Amino acid sequence: MRTSHYPFSAIVGCDAEPLDDLGLALVLASVSPEIGGVLVRGQKGTAKSTAVRALAPLLPPVEVYRGDRFSVDPADPAQESPDGPFPPGTAVERRPVRLVELPVGATEDRVLGSLHLEQALTHGRVAYEPGLLARGHRGLLYVDEVNLLHDHLVDLLLDAAATGRVTVERDGFSVEHAARFLLIGTMNPEEGELRPQLLDRFGLTVEVAAPSDPAARVEVVRRRMAYDADAAAFSERYDRAEKALAERIAAARETARRARLSDAALLKIAQVCAAFEVDGLRADIVTARTALAHAAWEGRTSVSLADIRRAALLALPHRRRRNPFDAPGLDEELLDRVLGDEEPPPDGPEPPGGSDGPTGSDDPASPADDGGDGGDGAPEDADGAPSRPPEAGAGEPDRSSVPPRGPENAREAEAPRDRGDAERDGAGPEPTAGTTVGAGAPYRPRTFTARGTGTGADGRRSRALGARGRRIGAAPPGGGSGGPLHLVETVRAAASRPHGGGRIGLLPGDLRVAVREGQESNLVLFCVDASGSMAARKRMGEVKTAILSLLLDAYRRRDKVGLVTFRGTAADLVLPPTRSVDTAAARLDALPAGGRTPLAEGLLEAARVLRRERLRDPRQRPLLVLVTDGRATGGRGAVDRSLQAADHVAGLGVATVVVDGESGPLRLGLAAALAARMGAEHLPVDEVSADALGNAVRERAA
Question: Where is the composition biased (Acidic residues) (predicted)?
Fold first, then answer.
């Protein structure tokens, strides 16, 4: 088996038994494509893409009709090709399984297919040119950096994965074809999380990291350097191992057709899924299929506890994570307790029909039969995520799924303390200066969008015109859409001119570019008064929880979130605009409170951050959230300087929300006056709860 790629068996971890998680997940998905694909998560430089690209040559070849661009299975009469029908006796050929790569920047036309321009321009015929989904039928569809895939492409993948078919109605033609593929995605979690619906479509997930053992790292480098020096000679050294692995995969596919899952084993799988409180029933189905594939890989036709354990470790982690703050992986001690030590007994005589086993087809099956998963048919929120019924005890966060926060230990502060304000406000005793108040469990925020249509960077929140997204029309170039050339509309514009019955000629005035509507990201900058007057434990905890929740929402939607705090004598940018949720959570937990109120310094620091971000990306629309009671007690002339700073921020033209931290029977109305001076929206303290603060931000983005 001569290869020009890096051999699968040469990857450290995939070169010996037992295979590591990455190698095993890819192999099991190949043995039983009905599992639904693999998501590989890890930092850059961990052989994610190398392993995926090395997998395709190991898979058994497929039979197709000669000349069929849609690769339908000749043995399956239910599959129809737009290139057909194929009469009896049509030549059938065997070809290797395709690895089709879907680029993050692919257009909708490239994914679904489009008008065959050569046929249209030279022969005047409307013909369909298949896209990547058609090419990936009965093969591997690989998406590198899948978490960066634009939402409109995610929707296309979801539709194809759910139905196993693609329907194209555009540009004067109507085409429907099969699209069943083994979906494999790789991603770096630091760059953002996946949309929940797409995440659930991956049957298995694997976390990969660079080896910490120096000897293993040395071996990785040695092999890579040898491959780069002479790829052919290096591949030849692993030729025998590659052949053996390919033969074992083919044999495991045959064994999987005979493998059966006993009722006792199925009950054990259900107990495991229930114990980890996974959503829906797709987890049970995928775990069962993975356990069968693992048994077949080991050469057995009955499922053991070891098979169920390995299947659960691969199929459940991404289904039990509620948000990126949850630690990845499973509690293996809990898993072992649920599984117990007693092997599941086999059933009696084999039932006719054998509905438990795989379908026996070499083609990746559509997961459309996963009817009871509770995911596809559930109602969806405005942002497309499946809604869930309220859980019992929703008022108390599940500490098993939320990482513990830092201790609320008192710290000595260098700044003087502004005494008595919190006690007079009735919000509880003020902590000592420098006290660190932890945030509560983050909640799911309601979606907010910027009004109108922007032109910002690709994101998942506000409407925007750009080079990506859904095509909504065409316009002459120079209109600001920035879209690619729209060939169909260009030809149509040329054809609409009188041409005397001759060939159509193109003129500069005929050119049309595509106008696409997608979504953009936004910047939400919090400027928080962390002085003694705002340091009441409950109030600061609510503010932190709201920021943490909005950060989590922004992380999923590719927004930027920053945090400026002011206390004592200065303001600090404790969280520069970022999308890293782990760093943000750590810094929010460590945020202290107490001391005087340098309001002017806080406003000026926020203005500096906004100006800098505007220079970096003028198209990104910001929102400033100022959390303060309006007091200014830091330094000489604090009040006058704060008013001047407020005028400066107002001159930036940034939409601002002032959350008034003042409460109690005696109110000075300083925050309201500050909001009026800044032309900002004023939010009374009665609405400063975690939910109210989130609502204020979501409803006020322009």
Answer: 370-383
Predicted local confidence at residue 475, as pLDDT: 77
Torsional sign, CA 480, 486, 490, 492: negative
CB–CB of 658/679 below 8 Å? no
Task: Using DSSP bridges, classify how beta strands 458-466 and 513-520 pair: parallel, antiparallel or unpaired.
Answer: antiparallel
Token pair 């942002």 in the structure block, residue: 383
Q: Give me the numbers of helices (H) and strands (E) for the chain, helices first please.
A: 23, 22
Nearest to 131 by CA among 149, 148, 111, 154: 111
CB contact set of 399 (below 8 Å; sequence gap of 6+): none
CA-to-CA distance for 121 and 665, rounded, in angstroms?
A: 78
Contact 615, 456 (CB under 8 A): no
CA distance linking residue 653 with residue 168, whole number of Å: 44
Closest CA to 431 of 527, 570, 528, 539: 539
Identify the H or E element spanning 488. helix 487-495
CA 536, 538, 541: angle at the middle one, nearest 5? Answer: 105
Placement of tokens 């030549």 in the chain: 91
Residue partners of 347: CB distance under 8 A and separation at least 6? 260, 262, 263, 264
CA distances from 573 to 305, 563, 623, 641, 654 (A): 52, 6, 16, 20, 18
Q: What local confidence, expressed as pLDDT, does residue 36 receive?
A: 85
Residue 656, pLDDT score: 86
DSSP letter for 485, please. B
Report the DSSP pairing between strands 622-628 and 523-529: parallel
Helices (H), 193-304: 196-201, 214-229, 231-237, 239-258, 263-275, 282-297
Among residues 252, 255, 261, 141, the alpha carbon closest in space to that of 201 is found at: 141
> How far apart are the C-alpha atoms of 43 and 96, rounded to whole Å?
31
Question: Tokens standing for 697?
Answer: 């931000």
Cα(351)–Cα(349) distance, rounded to whole angstroms? 6
Q: Which residues of the chain have pLDDT under 70?
A: 1-4, 115-126, 170-172, 190, 192, 321-328, 347-452, 459-460, 466-468, 478-484, 499-504, 533-540, 542-543, 546, 579-584, 663-665, 685-702
- Predicted confidence at residue 300, as pLDDT, reads 92
Helix axes 332-339, 305-315, angle to 10 degrees: 140
What's the CA gap between 459 and 152, in Å, rounded?
A: 11
What are the phi and psi torsion angles at 318 (to 5°)?
-75, -10
The residues carrying an active-site annotation are: 282
Amino acid at 190: E
Query: What pLDDT is stored for residue 214 in this prediction?
Result: 92
Q: How far is CA 427 from the centre of its chain?
A: 39
Is 622 exposed, middle or buried (CB count within 10 Å of its CB: 0-12, 13-18, 19+)?
A: buried
Q: Provide the strand spans (E) within 358-469.
A: 435-436, 458-466
Looking at residue 23, the DSSP 8-state letter turns out to be H
Helix, strand or coil, per DSSP, at residue 207: strand
pLDDT of residue 265: 92
CB atoms within 10 A of CB 502: 6
Side chain identity at residue 364, one-letter code: P
Q: How far apart are CA 554 and CA 530, in angstroms?
A: 23
Based on C-alpha coordinates, what's the Rg of the chain?
30
pLDDT at 26: 94
Q: How would you classify the pairing of strands 173-178 and 165-170?
A: antiparallel
Query: Taking Cα atoms as reference points, which of 283, 282, 288 lies closest to residue 273?
Result: 283
Q: What was the pLDDT predicted at 392?
A: 37
